[in-house]
C-alpha cells in the first residue's frame, strides 16, 4: 500500500473500549478520556512491490506501506506493538528517541537489547511514553533494513493540555528518506565483502516519493494542502540512511518550536539542517499569494572528496485556491532556494540557535567524564585475503571507531541478555574513557593511528551518575559531520566548536542555562560537541553514529547502566516472548551454557543452533532465513 498520506495512521485497538462507550452514553466519559491509554498495533513485516524511478522492487515494508504506519499517542500513553516477521531477513524495530524507562528490552537494536526476530516469528514491544512530547520515529535496527522500514511516532500533550505555542490548524509529518535502485541489503553486503564504500543512494524522498525532479516521479509527488491565513505544524524527520539534509519551503519562513521530542525557544529561519535520526518541528504561516510552493530537501555533505547523492527531493505546499486537480501544468510550483551542499556555516548557524525554552535541568557537577574520538579508519588487508576483498584506499578496508575501538556486535546473545544472565565471553566492560594516545585530532594524523582495534566493549555507569561526554571528530581519512545518537536517553548539548577541544578554553563556553535537549547530536565537521545527562535508566544503551555506513564500519559503543536501589530504579524482567538466543555451532552448547539456560527467565527451549559448516552455513551466519 503506497497511499501514505491517505492511509498512513495505524488504527489502534484500545483497551476498555466497550466500557468507555458505555460511560460516554451515560455522560461520564470525561474522567476516562483523561486517563492514559494503551494502544495496540500489529506490524507485519513483509515484501511489497514498490515502484519508484520507473522500476518495481520487492521492498521490505510494514503492513504493506512505504513509509510505514504513523503512530499517534499522548504523553503518558502505553504502546503495545506486535511485530510479525514475514520477510526473509531477521530484523528488530527501534523506537528512536523513546526513553524506555526500565524497559530496555523493548529498545530494539539487534544484539544490543535483543536477538533478532527470525522470519516466521514475532515479538511484542511494550513501553510507556513518559514526559515526552513532539516528534519521534521508529525504524528497523538490523543491517540496512531501515532504508524502507520506518515511520513517524507523534506524541501529543496529555489530554486537556496544550502546546506551548498557538494551536496549529493542521499537522503534517514529512519523512525524508533515501531510495536505492537496488536492494539496500545487497548494497551493504557488497561493501562489507569488498571493504569499499557502499554505493550512494539513487534518490532522496519525502514520504517515500522522490518528487518532480526525478524520472517517473511527478505523479506521486506528495501534496500538502493548506488554506490561506493558517498556522500549521510541520514535523520533519530525517529518516535517510547516510545523509544530513537541508530542508526548506519556498517563500515561507519556518518557526522552529521543537526537536527530538523536546520543546525549544521559538526562532525563525528559512532553512533547517537535520542529521539522520533527528527531527525538527516547525510552524509555518500560509501568508503568501495562493499558489504552489516546493518543499525541498537535499544533501549537506561535509566530507571532502567523498561521493554523495547530489539530487533534490520535492513535495508541494499547495494553497487550496491554487489547486490544480484539473490541469497541473498551468500552475508550476515556485522553486525553493537551498544552501550549497558544503555550506557548513549555514548548518552550524542552525544547530547553535537551538535553546531550551526555560532553565534547563542540566547537571552542573560531573561524576563520569568521557572524551571520545569519533571518526573513520582503515584496516590493513588481512593476510591471505584476496584483493577483491580489500578495495578500500590502497588495498585496505574501511573502518570506523570511537577511541580507536571499532565496535563489533555479538552474534549469539544480546548484550543486555548477557549482562542480565551473567553470561561470560559476550563483551568486556573496559571501554576506554579516553583515546589510547593523544594527537592532533583534526590535523595531519600519522598513518600509524589509522587502524582501530575490533572489540565488543561497554562502559559501565552507576545509576544516577552525572555524565559528560566530549565527542571529538578526527581527520583520519577525512573530517565529517557525525550525527551521534544515544539510545534510552536525552542529553543536553552544552557546547560545540571546530578544531580540537581545549578543556582550559572551551569549558568557559559551556551553556549550562538553556542548552537544547536532544537524543542525536551533530558533531561538527572537524570539530567537537559536549553533552551531559544523568544515567537514571538502567540497561544497555547503544551510542552510535546514525550514518548507517559508519555504524556498519564500527562507529559505536554502549553504556551499561547498572540498577539503582529498589524496583523503580531497576530494569524490568525480560518479556516472555523475547526472541531466541542464537548459537553458531553445536560445539558452543556446553554444560555452562545449558546451566545458564536453565537459570534463565526465558523459556528453556529458546535456543537456536545454526550450522557453521555445510551448504547453507553462510546464509545462516549472515542471519538471513533462506527457507
Automatic annotation (TrEMBL):
Cofactor mode of binding and number, as noted: Binds 4 Cu cations per monomer.
EC number, as in UniProt: 1.10.3.2
Compartments, record wording: Secreted, Extracellular space, Apoplast
Record keywords: Apoplast, Copper, Glycoprotein, Lignin degradation, Metal-binding, Oxidoreductase, Repeat, Secreted
UniProt enzyme class: oxidoreductase
UniProt keyword Metal-binding, yes or no: yes
Molecular function terms, GO-annotated: copper ion binding; hydroquinone:oxygen oxidoreductase activity
Reaction catalysis annotation: 4 hydroquinone + O2 = 4 benzosemiquinone + 2 H2O
GO cellular component: apoplast
Domain of life: Eukaryota
Membrane spanning residue stretches: none
PROSITE patterns: MULTICOPPER_OXIDASE1, MULTICOPPER_OXIDASE2
GO biological process, one term: lignin catabolic process
Keyword Repeat applies: yes
Boundaries of every Plastocyanin-like domain copy: 45-159, 171-321, 430-563
Alphabetized CDD domains for the sequence: CuRO_1_LCC_plant, CuRO_2_LCC_plant, CuRO_3_LCC_plant
Family according to the record: Belongs to the multicopper oxidase family.
Role noted for this protein: Lignin degradation and detoxification of lignin-derived products.
Protein name: Laccase
Amino acid at each position: 500500500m503506497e497511499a501514505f498520506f491517505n492511509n498512513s495512521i495505524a488504527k489502534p485497538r484500545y483497551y476498555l473500549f466497550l466500557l468507555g462507550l458505555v460511560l460516554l452514553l451515560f455522560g461520564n466519559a470525561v474522567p476516562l478520556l483523561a486517563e492514559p491509554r494503551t494502544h495496540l498495533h500489529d506490524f507485519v513485516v513483509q515484501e511489497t512491490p514498490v515502484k519508484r524511478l520507473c522500476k518495481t522492487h520487492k521492498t521490505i515494508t510494514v503492513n504493506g506501506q512505504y513509509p510505514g504506519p504513523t503512530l499517534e499517542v499522548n504523553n503518558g500513553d502505553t504502546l503495545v506493538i506486535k511485530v510479525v516477521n514475514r520477510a526473509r531477513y531477521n530484523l528488530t524495530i527501534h523506537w528512536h528517541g523513546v526513553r524506555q524507562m526500565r524497559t530496555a528490552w523493548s529498545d530494539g537494536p539487534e544484539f544490543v537489547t535483543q536477538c533478532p526476530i527470525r522470519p516466521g516469528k514475532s515479538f511484542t514491544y511494550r513501553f510507556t511514553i513518559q514526559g515526552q512530547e513532539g516528534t519521534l520515529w521508529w525504524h528497523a535496527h538490523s543491517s540496512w533494513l531501515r532504508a524502507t522500514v520506518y515511520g513517524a511516532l507523534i506524541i501529543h500533550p496529555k489530554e486537556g493540555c496544550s502546546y506551548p505555542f498557538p494551536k496549529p490548524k493542521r499537522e503534517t509529518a514529512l519523512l525524508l528518506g533515501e531510495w536505492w535502485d537496488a536492494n539496500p541489503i545487497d548494497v551493504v553486503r557488497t561493501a562489507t565483502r569488498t571493504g569499499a564504500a557502499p554505493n550512494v543512494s539513487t534518490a532522496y524522498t519525502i514520504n517515500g516519493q522522490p518528487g518532480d525532479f526525478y524520472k517517473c516521479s511527478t505523479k506521486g509527488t506528495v501534496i500538502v494542502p493548506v488554506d490561506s491565513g493558517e498556522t500549521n505544524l510541520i514535523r520533519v524527520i530525517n529518516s535517510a540512511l547516510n545523509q544530513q539534509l537541508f530542508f526548506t519551503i519556498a517563500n515561507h519562513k519556518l518557526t522552529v518550536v521543537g526537536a527530538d521530542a523536546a520543546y525549544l525557544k521559538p526562532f525563525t529561519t528559512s532553512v533547517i539542517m537535520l542529521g539522520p535520526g533527528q527531527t525538527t518541528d516547525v510552524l509555518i504561516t500560509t501568508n503568501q499569494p495562493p499558489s504552489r510552493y516546493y518543499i525541498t530537501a537535499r544533501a549537506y555533505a561535509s566530507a571532502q572528496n567523498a561521493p554523495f547523492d547530489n539530487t533534490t527531493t520535492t513535495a508541494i505546499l499547495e494553497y487550496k485556491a491554487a489547486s490544480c486537480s484539473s490541469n497541473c501544468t498551468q500552475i508550476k510550483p515556485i522553486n525553493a532556494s537551498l544552501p550549497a551542499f558544503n555550506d557548513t556555516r549555514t548548518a552550524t548557524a542552525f544547530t547553535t540557535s537551538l535553546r531550551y525554552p526555560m532553565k534547563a535541568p542540566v547537571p552542573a557537577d560531573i561524576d563520569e567524564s568521557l572524551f571520545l574520538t569519533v571518526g573513520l579508519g582503515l584496516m590493513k588487508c588481512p593476510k591471505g585475503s584476496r584483493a577483491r576483498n580489500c578495495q578500500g584506499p590502497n588495498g585496505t578496508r574501511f573502518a570506523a571507531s570511537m577511541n580507536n575501538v571499532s565496535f563489533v556486535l555479538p552474534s549469539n546473545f544480546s548484550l543486555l541478555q548477557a549482562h542480565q544472565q551473567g553470561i561470560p565471553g559476550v563483551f568486556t566492560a573496559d571501554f576506554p574513557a579516553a583515546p589510547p594516545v593523544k594527537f592532533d585530532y583534526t590535523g595531519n594524523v600519522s598513518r600509524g593511528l589509522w587502524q582501530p582495534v575490533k572489540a565488543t566493549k561497554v562502559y559501565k555507569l552507576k545509576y544516577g551518575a552525572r555524565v559528560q561526554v566530549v565527542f571529538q571528530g578526527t581527520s583520519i581519512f577525512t573530517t565529517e559531520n557525525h550525527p551521534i545518537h544515544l539510545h534510552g536517553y536525552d542529553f543536553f548539548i552544552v557546547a560545540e566548536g571546530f578544531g580540537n577541544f581545549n578543556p582550559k578554553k572551551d569549558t568557559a563556553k559551556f551553556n549550562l542555562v538553556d542548552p537544547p535537549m536532544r537524543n542525536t547530536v551533530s558533531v561538527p565537521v572537524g570539530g567537537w560537541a559536549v553533552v551531559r545527562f544523568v544515567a537514571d535508566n538502567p540497561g544497555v544503551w547503544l551510542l552510535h553514529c546514525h550514518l548507517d555506513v559508519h555504524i556498519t564500519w564500527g562507529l559505536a559503543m554502549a553504556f551499561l547502566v547498572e540498577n539503582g536501589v529498589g524496583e523503580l530504579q531497576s530494569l524490568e524482567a525480560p518479556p516472555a516472548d523475547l526472541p531466541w538466543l542464537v548459537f553458531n555451532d553445536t560445539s558452543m552448547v556446553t554444560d555452562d551454557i545449558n546451566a545458564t539456560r536453565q537459570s534463565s527467565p526465558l523459556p528453556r527451549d529458546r535456543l537456536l543452533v545454526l550450522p557453521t559448516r555445510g551448504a547453507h552455513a553462510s546464509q545462516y551466519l549472515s542471519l538471513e532465513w533462506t527457507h
